[in-house]
Design brief:
Strands 1, 2, 3, 4, 5, 6, 7, 8, 9 and 10 form a ten-stranded mixed β-sheet that branches. It is elongated, with a radius of gyration of 30 Å. 47% of the residues lie in helices and 15% in strands. It has helices at 2-14, 16-43, 86-95, 132-136, 148-152, 162-169, 221-226, 267-282, 301-307, 313-342, 345-353, 358-392, 406-432, 436-442, and strands at 55-60, 100-112, 120-128, 140-143, 157-161, 178-181, 184-192, 215-220, 259-263, 296-300. The longest helix has 35 residues, at 358-392. A hairpin with a 2-residue loop joins β6 and β7 (184-192).
Length: 443
């Protein structure tokens, strides 16, 4: 093997122009493919490894209104984020049938620090309850989370992201300071490290993908409603509910505006909670007369992301196009390799006449093809990084995630090796079939 590898290396240097041409062709194909695959890899990654497998979105339809038409004439489905009303969330919280559970709503609102000339910013915060942090594994840099008792008391406390703390107060040492939200002032009791699962699976209505945009603060849901901050969006509202006070305002008691996530450790817990949800939906006597069946669903993270088609179609299309381009490059390189291998017919014939087996000839030329593609992989690395940089310049809402992580770095060279073996297989096989007698005579 070592001898054949040495011959393959010498073969690269013997025809430098065709080697350079093959390396450049492979590098362009690999770079185009890896640029799109790296982005696709980031968009389809597990948002919370180790936790996503036992997180479920719980949903019951208790909106007192006629069933909505969710399907348009051109088969485009109207988005439904499976949100529930605050009243239902309070019942589920009280019954507490899951290990951890929390209603959630990302709210884009004004956040103002304390002081005479208090700085302020509009950004996302998450209105939720106390079990959100242990359920999703949000880590604290300082301070503490709030308790269930503070939830029940609707205590105006807040936890802020370290970046938001610096923006509003110029330091992360902000425990005990005030944060104005709506017409209330919330006391900061904790500071978190940046928490930005990709995708933002627990509330896709606010943010789906973003490396820089995320929930910058966490506050008790009840206290935020008391402060007069609207939840801003809902799936549907009760027909007999009060009229909206503002165009985008949402009445949490009568509009389904909260995602409700639960942590269920095993299949039995999932089955029990699903039965509990269905039983809860079937007992909604207030729905009588609206023509609705009892609907309840429990959906895992993976199934939920798939159902919502969170990966943009153009990303998948670009990956297919780049893969096709790589196949075209491989076909060209295979032709180039076949031509240069067959030019060595006399040399191969002499080696065969001296006793070299076909397998050794085949191995030598597959090694040569693999070496060409590995060199192409080295050149493809800066080209891939350049392609990802150009993607990040685009404002598409998700392109700032275009990065080459260690897994994709390894995948680049693994792909280069596979491309080399596949591309060189047929030319090497043809070279190994050269008849030694004819070649020796012609030489």
């Amino acid at each position: 093997m070592r001898y054949n590898l040495t011959l393959a290396w010498e073969g690269l240097k013997r025809y430098p122009r065709s080697t350079i041409l093959a390396v450049l062709t492979v590098a362009m194909g690999l770079a185009a493919t890896m640029t799109t695959l790296a982005l696709l890899h980031q968009l389809t990654a597990d948002p919370l490894p180790g936790r996503s497998g036992h997180l479920y979105l719980a949903w019951v339809d208790t909106v007192r209104a006629k069933p909505q038409q969710n399907q348009s004439l051109n088969d485009i489905t109207v988005e439904n984020y499976h949100r529930i009303k605050w009243d239902d969330a309070q019942v589920l919280l009280r019954d507490h049938r899951a290990t951890w559970q929390a209603p959630m709503a990302s709210v884009f609102t004004e956040m103002t620090g304390d002081g005479e000339h208090a700085p302020h910013r509009r950004d996302y915060l998450l209105a939720t309850t106390s079990e959100f942090m242990p359920m999703l594994g949000v880590s604290l840099r300082s301070g503490r989370g709030w308790s269930a008792a503070e939830d029940a008391a609707r205590a105006p406390v807040a936890i802020v992201d370290s970046d938001m703390a610096v923006r509003l107060y110029g330091t992360v040492d902000v425990l005990g300071r005030g944060l104005k939200l709506g017409h209330g002032v919330f006391r900061i009791i904790g500071v978190t490290a940046p928490f930005s699962p990709q995708p933002h699976f627990y509330d896709l209505s606010a943010i789906t993908f973003s490396g820089s945009q995320r929930d910058m603060a966490f506050v008790p849901l009840g206290a935020l409603l008391d402060a007069g901050v609207d939840l801003a969006s809902s799936d549907a509202c009760d027909e007999n509910g009060p009229k909206k006070s503002t165009l985008f305002g949402t009445d949490a008691a009568h509009c389904s505006s909260l995602s409700y996530w639960v942590d269920l450790p095993d299949g039995k817990a999932v089955a029990d909670f699903r039965a509990y949800l269905q039983h809860y939906a079937e007992n909604q006597q207030s729905l009588a007369g609206y023509g609705k069946s009892a609907r309840a669903e429990l959906t895992g993270v993976g199934a939920w992301l798939s159902k919502q088609n969170v990966v943009p179609d153009n990303v998948r299309l670009n990956a297919w196009l780049a893969g096709s381009f790589l196949l075209l490059c491989m076909a060209n390189v295979a032709g180039l390799l076949a031509a240069r291998f067959l030019r060595r017919g006399a040399e191969i014939g002499i080696r065969r006449a001296l006793g070299a087996p076909r397998s050794a000839i085949f191995q030598q030329h597959v090694f040569e093809a693999a070496l060409i593609c590995l060199v192409g992989g080295v050149l493809a690395l800066p080209l891939t990084l350049f392609g990802l940089w150009t993607l990040r310049l685009q404002a598409s809402g998700f392109t700032d995630l275009a990065r080459l992580d260690p897994a994709m770095f390894v995948a680049l060279f693994a792909l280069a090796l596979v491309v080399g073996i596949v591309t060189g297989w047929l030319p090497a096989w043809r070279a190994s079939r050269v008849e030694p007698g004819l070649q020796v005579k012609s030489a």
